[in-house]
Design goal:
Length: 144
């Protein structure tokens, strides 16, 4: 065996690694596309869920919260908030409505967005829908 690393050896490693990486990428993509319909809860998307997603985006909730691991870490993860609130959309609505307009002195607090009842229901349904996505046990604990 040669002690010297030649250009042809480097080319073969580069090409072999490239082909291996592409095969791995395509096989993992194929697998993901196969299991997504069972796991992503797409069959439960309603007009209320879509409205809740719009409210989520319009108010930049992801600027403070994470949802399914995406977003800022200033405020709690909301991917499992429906479970944490006892599987109750009314509890979520009540919590959002109860935020004081001036905040809580000495503590960081979620602002009062003055959402309409329809927007609150949409947000609660969006968070419920999110919690029903099979995330393979993510987040790893109840607090997120």
């Amino acid at each position: 065996m040669s002690e010297r690393f030649t250009k042809s050896m480097a080319r073969n490693i580069y090409l072999g690694g490239g082909v291996f990486s592409l095969l791995l990428f395509f096989s993992l993509s194929y697998h993901t596309l196969g299991v997504l319909p069972e796991r992503d809860n797409r069959h439960n998307i309603t007009d209320e869920v879509a409205l809740g997603k719009k409210v989520w985006e319009d108010n930049n909730c992801v600027g403070c919260h994470t949802i399914l691991g995406e977003g800022a870490y200033f405020a709690p993860e909301l991917g499992n908030v429906y479970t944490r609130f006892g599987n109750s959309t009314e509890a979520i609505i009540s919590f959002i409505e109860s935020r004081p307009a001036e905040g809580i002195p000495g503590r960081r607090s979620m602002p009062q967005f003055n959402l309409t009842r329809e927007e609150l229901v949409g947000m609660a349904e969006f968070l419920k829908w999110t919690s029903e996505i099979d995330t393979n046990d993510w987040p790893p604990n109840i607090e997120g």
